[in-house]
Fold:
Amino acid sequence: MKADALRGHLDPMILAVVEHEPLHGYAIMEALQERSGGAVDLPTGTLYPALRRLERAGYLASEWSTVSGRKRRTYQLTSAGQKMLADGRGEWETFRTVIEGVLRPRTS
Amino acid sequence: MKADALRGHLDPMILAVVEHEPLHGYAIMEALQERSGGAVDLPTGTLYPALRRLERAGYLASEWSTVSGRKRRTYQLTSAGQKMLADGRGEWETFRTVIEGVLRPRTS
DNA sequence: AGTGGATAGGTAGAACGGCTACATGTAGCA
DNA sequence: TGCTACATGTAGCCGTTCTACCTATCCACT
Structure:
């Protein structure tokens, strides 16, 4: 599945995977793959800019570390990010209801 | 709700409202509003180009008519459009499952 | 020792599609 | 006469994701 289809929903998805544990970019990519059963396979050119955007917006905070020679930038949810995530979940419910109301086949 | 969030889902929604009866652009706009409980309020600058795009792609066919002095371009679903709509409904189910799998809060 | 794949982070520039803002015109009502 | 609803459309902007590319380390296999 193209992340293009996720447009507007990618942000809360990213926030959701770092909700309980801080993760670095690559791990976020893998977590998304795993949670989606392989359907979400973000190119790095999508994920990394998105993470920076979310950090600039104040929803994520990052920290550099080096693990066995590899640089890692680990992201964690800020309190603003938690709020954003909660909002995102609510908006998803609305969105889903709206789409299904329109898409549902009418026998009449 | 911004149509921006609908990105990638707008096409099947438009096809869905003309599934059983051909409608002209303005009526499609109103039908979307009604079916979505007012949430979907497409600006004309979104709808009309989308209709032309769908026609170019072969999913809709249009016909001019004049009703009480007003020009109307009435769109109806082609057989390719019917298939596209069916596909779109299937993709929506996949999409929904994927998003919810990622967004769902984890207690662990 | 060398190669290739997985891990890890990143950028530049293009494409896409929905956006705002504008343009045009008719019908009906106050 | 002017306002609102009806009706169709275009131009150009903007944000997000895209493809394609770059760097670098670690590990397994040859």
